[in-house]
Design a protein that fits this description.
The structure is a single chain. By secondary structure, the chain is α+β, with helices and mostly antiparallel strands. It folds into two domains: 226 residues, Beta-galactosidase, Chain A, domain 5, CATH 2.70.98; 383 residues, Glycosyltransferase (Alpha/alpha barrel). The protein is globular, with a radius of gyration of 25 Å. The chain has 14 helices and 26 strands. The strands form six sheets. It has a 15-stranded antiparallel β-sheet that branches. It has a three-stranded antiparallel β-sheet with strand order 24-25-26. The longest helix is centred in the last third of the chain and has 21 residues. This is Trehalase. Its EC number is 3.2.1.28. Belongs to the glycosyl hydrolase 15 family. GO terms for molecular function: alpha,alpha-trehalase activity.
Length: 638
């Protein structure tokens, strides 16, 4: 099969790929899509976010896209989200008129009324995904030639569709996509022509004219008229605005960043199970043209503590509780806890390479699946126990069903804490005695002891506290260098940004000299132009070649850590700078190039948005009360 390009390459040396930060993110909490500035959907996987893609131009310019926009114009005048929503509005100007396009994944009322859902394991809500990507168009001035091009290629562009008309007219067509994806139904107020693997439509719109295009991938009905499409768009807008209103957002200039991060995290959830995806994409490179390309369309247990910190802090308890239920499901049946799972709890995430795709700007390999799922990483038990602790604090009780779950995880941490592992960053080099892994094992024992006292199990509390104290002493003895700085691993002076968690996880009080020394060393020695690296790649055997950008989550961690040690002005300045690096739609990838501000890695990145929420709330609370060092506090206790 030959992949043909969707547009001729520019002749001035520019990349044919949009910058990662220029993509818009759409979601219905069951699947998602990325929309380029050109108006083309260039990444979408159905029916789940980790399914094979049907539009893959994000990773190969000839691998399928779905564009709605003016003919001959590729650069819009403006793009924005409708405030409080995940509905994208793009405004176009041509030489003859103005056009406005709105894109959304439709949310409607709960539709499993006569039989139970085969996918949902969480409590039903009032709303549900309708499995429709809806695009409405209005000419607001003059005349504009509109074009629609839908060119799916299923199974990561390995299968070309077979198009056929549904009825006697031209307005409804179906793409047969093979076994890897469901068939796609395209309906519109326009007339489609079928040309090869494409369905196309075109018309001249005049002021006041409206049209719609809907792409559906389930038996649920798509709109059949513009009025019906407008109604579904309005209902989706109300869903998002009603949802964001449930949260607590301080009256502060940074409120918009908190809200956009919350909406992004909601969009990265998989509602049927409560899972939180690390990102919507696979194989967007951490280094331009490099090999550090990973599939992040899965749920990491490590994200749990930070997710609950952020969601509970903003008062979004339902999403936090659903994610906690997903974690609880993963801990059942006495199975060995993994570092990550599929969005429905799948345990095997076999990693393969797609050699037929060029990769984003030539970055190869393109990977699907993630071989790190079976790595030994000792931070998972601490993440689970801190999650249980936060969940319990929020509910002010320990559910009885959780006791055997947490007991098993504490015992696993007790059994393994003294062994080497792959660490928080999932290095593919040799296992090491990473300090942050020992730190998270201490968290498991410390939180376990606190929960045992709450559950009236004094013998377990005493036993676990004794081991927690032993781990604490071991870290302070072997994980600190001569300067009093916590280091990446035992017996080595290399720095690691994960040690910014020492004050945030309450391992030591923020006024301890070792905490201050660690925060200052990372701020001054593990940064590029003021932004934080995970570690120096030439100091760490991570099993990969090449460099990487600064990790944005680590820079946000530094903001929080600076607040902890009382450097409020420095924290505020760094936070303002990081917020300025956000995309035009206030979205973040995994990394930043400190010299150019270019976003690198998978997009949008949940971990980054979680760290943003915690950092911003740290600064806001520090401004209100410089003596308040609580990393987590629910709105009701503010």
């Amino acid at each position: 099969m030959t992949l043909d390009a969707q547009a001729p390459p520019p002749t001035d040396g520019r990349s044919t790929f949009p910058a990662i930060a220029e993509y818009a993110f759409l979601s219905d909490c069951e699947t998602n899509a990325l929309v380029a500035p050109s108006g083309a959907v260039e990444w979408m996987c159905v029916p789940r976010p980790d399914s094979p893609s049907v539009f893959t131009s994000l990773l190969d310019r000839g691998a399928g896209h779905f564009r709605v926009g003016p003919h001959g114009v590729r650069v819009p005048v403006a793009r924005r989200y409708i405030p409080g929503t995940l509905i994208l509005e793009t405004t176009w100007q041509t030489s003859t008129g103005w056009l406005v396009v709105r894109d959304a994944m439709v949310m409607g009322p709960w539709h499993n009324l006569h039989e139970r859902s085969q996918t949902h394991r969480r409590t039903p809500t009032d709303h549900d995904a309708e499995h429709v990507l809806l695009r409405t168009v209005k000419c607001v001035s003059g005349k504009v030639d509109l074009e629609v091009v839908c060119s799916p290629m299923s199974d990561y562009a390995r299968y070309e569709p077979d198009w056929e008309y549904i009825d006697e007219g031209y307005s409804s067509v179906t793409a047969r996509t093979g076994d890897a994806n469901p068939d796609l139904r395209l309906s519109s107020s326009l007339r489609f022509g079928l040309e090869g693997r494409r369905a196309q439509a075109r018309t001249r719109m005049e002021e006041g004219d409206t049209h719609f295009v809907a792409l559906a991938w389930s038996p649920l009905p798509a709109p059949t008229s513009f009025d019906e499409a407008a109604e579904k768009m309005w209902r989706t807008e109300q869903f998002w605005r009603d949802w964001i209103t449930q949260g607590f957002f301080p009256d502060h200039p940074w409120r918009i960043y908190l809200q956009r991060s919350a909406l992004t995290l909601k969009g990265l959830t998989y509602a049927p199970s409560g899972a939180l995806l690390a990102a919507a994409t696979t194989s967007l490179p951490e280094t331009p043209g490099g090999e550090r390309n990973w599939d992040y369309r899965y749920a990491w247990i490590r994200d749990s503590t930070f997710a609950l910190w952020g969601l509970y802090t903003l008062g979004l308890d339902r999403e936090a509780n659903d994610f906690f239920a997903f974690i609880q499901d993963a801990c059942q049946d006495n199975k060995q806890l993994q570092i990550m799972y599929g969005v429905d709890g799948e345990e095997e995430l076999k990693e393969t390479e797609l050699t037929h795709l060029t990769g984003y700007e030539g970055a190869q390999p393109v990977r699907v699946g993630n071989a790190a799922y079976d790595q030994s990483q000792h931070d998972v038990w601490g993440a689970v126990l801190d999650s249980v602790y936060l969940h319990t604090r929020n509910r002010e009780q320990l559910p009885e069903a959780l006791w055997p779950v947490l007991k098993r995880q504490v015992e696993e941490a007790a059994k393994h804490w003294h062994l080497p592992d792959r660490g928080i960053w999932e290095v593919r080099g040799q296992p090491q005695h990473f300090t942050s892994s020992k730190l998270m094992c201490w968290v498991a024992l410390d939180r376990g002891a606190r929960l045992a006292r709450l559950y009236d199990e004094p013998d377990f509390a005493e036993q676990w506290q004794k081991l927690a104290d032993e781990i604490h002493a071991d870290i302070c003895s072997k994980g600190v260098d001569e300067r009093g700085v916590f280091t990446q691993r035992y017996g080595d002076d290399s720095l690691d940004a994960s040690l910014l968690l020492v004050p945030l996880l309450r391992f030591l009080p923020p006024d301890d000299e070792r905490v201050r020394a660690t925060v200052r060393a990372i701020a001054e020695e593990l940064t590029e132009d003021g932004l934080v690296l995970r570690y120096r790649t030439d100091d760490t055997d991570d099993g990969m070649d090449g460099e990487e950008g600064t990790f944005t989550i680590c820079s946000f961690w530094l903001v929080s850590a600076l607040c902890e040690i009382g450097e409020i002005d420095e924290a505020r300045t760094l936070c303002e700078r990081l917020l300025s690096f956000g995309s035009s739609l206030n979205l973040y990838a995994e990394e930043l190039d400190p010299r150019t501000g270019r976003h690198l890695g998978n997009f949008p990145q949940a971990f980054t948005h979680l760290a943003l929420i915690n950092a911003v709330m740290h600064v806001i609370r520090a401004e209100d009360d410089p003596g308040d060092h609580r990393a987590f506090r629910t709105p009701s206790r503010a």
